[in-house]
């Protein structure tokens, strides 16, 4: 493969390194290997942590302006190499090339944002009720352990790495074993941007459990940030408690999409397709449950079915591809099981519903889905639209909130008063009102309930990597 950023080595302490063993990375579109990377172990992870801790002593003392300038150079280099990055991303994740290019732009927006926002990590002077002087400053948390998923192999890293770097933290990253090459390409760009040795390391490994435990329990790690399943997040949180680490987790979702009778139906259909089929439905904020008011149910279902049936399913490099493959055969089995369960419980199949070649699954619309279907309670992570019916606003809110998760929620209405009421009533960290796309570098991304803790993006995302220190000045000479 002729791509200067395609590197088949791990990255530790400023060097690309090999290991004693390797593992293959599979293209989910073709089920063929695209390359190998080192299968590193806990000992390698410990070494990277020690180097990161040593580098932190130097990095945190660098002026904020210098750190921000380096992150700005990373932004510029990423922009310059966006086509190479997108190519790697499509190879290892399967998503359409147009989507991969979009992810580079989206993920890099966080790098640009934090390169500027780092300069505004303000402390404050606080009025005292005595003669003392109270001042607060913000300082880097320390060494950060990061674990990222396969579905957004660049953006899930950049929105953690950029604020960590400008804050003065160092980072040891364990990317998903399905998509390590994008992370290694980003490491190459970081090196080119001038990120010093040890400040950023990338550990490739199939031992997710072992490395996760090391990152969560190693006393030199001061914070762990993780994007992935709620089940794994709970384990990491328990492990991190042993050393009282700072944590920020973006976990599972079960996003509702509500269509009220006063909605613009055509706009709602467009929002539904945008919010559901990005990366073949394999996103944490992907719509999981469609709740449609009974008076517009048939109209919305018909228009959505038509739009979904016209989506082009193809290899990510094929011109016009809109829906790529699922990540592997296990993902296909899960989606198929959800469809079969829904149909067994009375759902009507309007389009799709079957596996195509390999890991491809036909975009699907199910209507009349029962409230006890697995789709109602479990995250689908696939190209399935499951439509439920509701009668009143109160019922819609109750159904939408009937889940232990609370990452994202969406609804369509042209009534401003309803928009205010429902937006405040829905139990989720992010609410899309008359839009199916909510991610933005300037906005705080994160969930409530069992969908996570902490925020990424916005000025709140910078605070996640900084400690507040209080300086008390006495009045004695």
Automatic annotation (TrEMBL):
It comes from the Bacteria. Pfam families: Aldedh (PF00171). Keywords: Oxidoreductase. GO terms for biological process: gamma-aminobutyric acid catabolic process. GO terms for molecular function: succinate-semialdehyde dehydrogenase (NAD+) activity. The keyword Repeat does not apply. The active site is at residue 250. Residues 17-470 form the Aldehyde dehydrogenase domain. Coiled coil: none annotated. InterPro entries: Ald_DH/histidinol_DH (IPR016161), Ald_DH_C (IPR016163), Ald_DH_CS_GLU (IPR029510), Ald_DH_N (IPR016162), Aldehyde_DH_dom (IPR015590), Aldehyde_DH_Superfamily (IPR050740), Succ_semiAld_DH (IPR010102). Belongs to the aldehyde dehydrogenase family. This is Succinate semialdehyde dehydrogenase.
């Amino acid at each position: 493969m002729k791509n200067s950023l395609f590197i088949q080595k791990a990255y530790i302490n400023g060097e690309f390194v090999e290991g004693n063993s390797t593992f293959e990375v599979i293209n989910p579109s073709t089920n063929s290997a695209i390359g190998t990377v080192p299968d590193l172990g806990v000992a390698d992870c410990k070494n990277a942590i020690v180097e990161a801790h040593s580098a932190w002593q130097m990095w945190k003392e660098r002026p904020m302006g210098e750190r921000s300038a380096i992150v700005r150079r990373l932004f510029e280099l990423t922009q310059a190499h966006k086509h190479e990055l997108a190519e790697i991303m499509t190879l290892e994740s399967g998503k359409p090339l147009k989507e991969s290019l979009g992810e580079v732009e989206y993920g890099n927006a966080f790098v640009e944002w934090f390169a500027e926002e780092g300069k505004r990590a303000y402390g404050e002077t606080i009025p005292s009720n005595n003669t003392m002087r109270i001042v607060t400053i913000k300082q880097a948390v320390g060494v950060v352990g990061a674990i990222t998923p396969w579905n957004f192999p660049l953006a899930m890293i950049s929105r953690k790495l950029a604020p960590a770097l400008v804050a003065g933290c160092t980072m040891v990253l364990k990317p998903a074993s399905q998509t390590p090459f994008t992370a290694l390409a980003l490491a190459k760009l970081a090196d080119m941007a001038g990120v010093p040795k040890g400040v950023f390391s990338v550990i490739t490994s199939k031992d997710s459990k072992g490395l996760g435990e090391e990152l969560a329990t190693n006393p030199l790690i001061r914070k762990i940030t993780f994007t992935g399943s709620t089940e794994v997040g709970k384990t990491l949180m328990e492990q991190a408690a042993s050393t009282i680490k700072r944590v920020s987790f973006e976990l599972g979702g079960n996003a509702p999409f509500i269509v009220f009778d006063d909605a613009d139906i055509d706009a709602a259909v467009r929002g539904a397709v945008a919010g559901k089929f990005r990366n073949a439905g394999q996103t944490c904020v992907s719509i999981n449950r469609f709740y449609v008011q009974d008076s517009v149910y048939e109209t919305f279902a018909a228009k959505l079915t038509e739009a979904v049936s016209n989506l082009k399913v193809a290899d990510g490099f094929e011109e016009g591809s809109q829906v790529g493959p699922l990540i592997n055969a296990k993902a296909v089995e899960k989606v198929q099981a959800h469809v079969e369960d829904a149909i067994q419980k009375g759902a009507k199949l309007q389009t799709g519903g079957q596996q195509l070649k390999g890991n491809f699954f036909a975009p699907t619309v199910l209507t009349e889905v029962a409230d006890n279907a697995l789709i109602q309670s479990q995250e689908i992570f696939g190209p399935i639209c499951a439509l439920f019916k509701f009668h009143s606003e109160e019922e819609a809110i109750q159904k939408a909130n009937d889940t232990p998760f609370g990452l994202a929620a969406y609804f369509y209405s042209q009534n401003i008063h309803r928009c205010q009421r429902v937006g405040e009533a829905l139990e989720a960290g992010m609410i899309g009102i008359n839009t199916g796309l909510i991610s933005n570098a300037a906005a705080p991304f994160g969930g409530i309930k069992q969908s996570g803790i902490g925020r990424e993006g916005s000025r709140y995302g910078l605070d996640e990597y900084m400690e507040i220190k209080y300086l008390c000045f006495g009045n004695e000479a």
